[in-house]
Amino acid sequence: MTQFHQNSAAAGLLERDREWLLPVYARFPIVMERGEGVYLFDTSGNRYLDMMGGLGVNALGHAHPRMVRATAEQTAKLVHLSPQYCTPFAGELAERLCALSGMQGVFYSTGGAEAVEGAIKVARAFAAEAYGPHKHRIVSLLGSYHGRTMGSLAVTGQTKYRDGFGPDLPGVDFAVRDDIASLQAAVSDETCCILIETVLGEGGVYEVSHEFLAEARRLADRHHALLVLDEIQCGLGRTGDWFAFSRTGVRPDVLILGKPLGGGLPLSALLVSGELFHALGLGKHGSTLGGSPLACRLGLEFLSVVEEEGLLARVCDTGSYLREHLEALARELDIAVEARGVGLIQALELNVPGRQIAESALEQGLMLNFVQGNVMRFLPSFLLERQHVDTAMEIVRPLLRKVNAETAAAELVLASR
Ligand SMILES: Cc1ncc(COP(=O)(O)O)c(C=O)c1O
Questions:
Q1: Do 182 and 250 sit in the same domain of this protein?
Q2: Is the CB of 116 under 6 A from ligand 1?
């Protein structure tokens, strides 16, 4: 295992975490102290290029001056109050999100999973009211990821996350991504919604085909079901459009956003079409911390920065540059299976485990992220530039070449036995 050089203070902090924090994350043995743009710095002063962006949250990198200013100003005025009161920001942010997405109403919560729960409630409440309680089934995709609460787990199409927590929420059917026949078989008149992660992120970075999405829309209409798009990871600019569905021609009835929305503060949003505005009536839903004045103020600042700094264009440019590099690696290396992705949600699938590669990269000042154990997933800040991609590749390329050579050598030994 890679040995990280820690100072004694860092070692103490790591030890304390091990003692007090439940061991649900495979953590790296360093302590991060601060961030600046696309870089992070540990407590020993070492600098790291951040290619995982806080799992897609840090779209504006770290300590963006406008976010810092907005945080300081708003913190001095009002951080939180009961959602029963109006503040200047929740409504303005909702109006802007709706203008961007074509939706017509917003409910705020704190994390992604909570927003997924809200979407399930909207779909079930709307269908039960309009057609009766039999219409409660949810169609989701195998390989999808929607969160860790009981409802969001139940619609997550990966048994490894659900195992051990049963019984699951009943009424969920799974279809195979991009397999239209399987979607047709899964949807019935009992379906209240079809839930699709427009780009499956945690599942390995697979963009759902436009044809499949169009068929989901058609089936939803035919069966009076809602089309719900989970764009918690791929929405809000990550694909180079405001939303991953933007370029597909398909419009959802419900859209779920999260991750970068609050500029690093917990904020997620459930957006609905006009028809669904009253699906959750008075007292039917809530979130104490959802849509705080501080988080919504940062949400507004986040949208403004993306617009005013022209970041969608940069996401497209840097994303395609990164993709070219990943495709070259996929062509060159036997351990690389495929490069895929869109904008700045990119991946290089390997046929070897990634943990050791991520640790070696970290030792050299590069933060990488693997999903499914072997898919190198990139979710960097929208501020990333071509020069940063070059820097990352100067570390990734030799690392992968080394693993490639070692794997080939090991296979040779095996073959000669
Ligand atoms: C597509 C998608 N949906 C839902 C979630 C759950 O979000 P959270 O971890 O904020 O609850 C995630 C998190 O990675 C996600 O990528």
A1: yes
A2: yes
- Measured from the Cα of 55, ligand 1's closest atom is 14
The residue whose CA is least distant from atom 4 of ligand 1 is: 146
* Strands (DSSP E) found in 185-317: 191-197, 199-200, 206-207, 226-230, 254-257, 268-272
Does ligand 1 have an atom closer than 6 angstroms to the CB of 233? yes
Q: Are strands 172-175 and 137-141 parallel, antiparallel or unpaired?
A: parallel
CA 334 / ligand 1 centre spacing (Å): 32
Are residues 247 and 260 both part of a single domain?
yes
3-state DSSP helix/strand/coil percent for the chain, to nearest 5? 45, 20, 35
Whether 230 lines ligand 1, by a CB cut-off of 6 Å, is yes
Say whether both 370 and 293 belong to one domain.
Answer: no
Both 267 and 151 in one domain: the answer is yes
pLDDT (0 to 100) of residue 4 = 62
pLDDT attached to residue 9? 86
Statement to judge: residues 87 and 201 lie in one domain: yes
Residue 235 Cβ < 6 Å to ligand 1: no
Asked whether residue 1 is domain-assigned, the answer is: no
- Ligand 1 test: best mutation among 25, 196, 205, 259, most atoms within 8 Å of CB? 259
Kindly state whether residues 262 and 372 are assigned to the same domain: no
Q: Which residues contact 154 (CB under 8 A, 6 or more apart)?
A: 162, 168, 169, 172
- Taking the centre of ligand 1 as the mean of its atom positions, its distance from the CA of residue 245, in whole angstroms, is 17
Supply the range of the domain harboring residue 379: 8-63+310-416
Distance CA 400, CA 45 (A): 27
CATH number at residue 196: 3.40.640.10
DSSP-derived secondary structure for 248-261: GS---SEEEE-GGG
Residue 111 CB less than 6 A away from ligand 1: yes
Tell me the CATH number at 403. 3.90.1150.10
Q: Is the CB of 248 under 6 A from ligand 1?
A: no
| Ordered mean pLDDT values, 10 residues apiece, the chain (417 residues) | 67 95 95 98 97 98 98 98 95 98 98 98 98 98 98 98 96 98 98 98 98 98 98 98 97 98 98 97 96 98 98 98 98 98 98 98 98 98 98 98 96 87
Strand partners, 240: none
Asked if residue 2 belongs to a domain, the reply is no
* Residue 199 pLDDT: 98
Nearest ligand 1 atom, CA 268: 10
Q: Do residues 304 and 270 make contact, with C-beta atoms less than 8 angstroms apart?
A: no
Choose the residue to mutate in 58, 108, 146 for probing ligand 1, maximizing ligand atoms within 8 Å of C-beta.
146
- Number of domains composing the chain: 2
Claim to verify: residue 206 and residue 129 sit in the same structural domain: yes
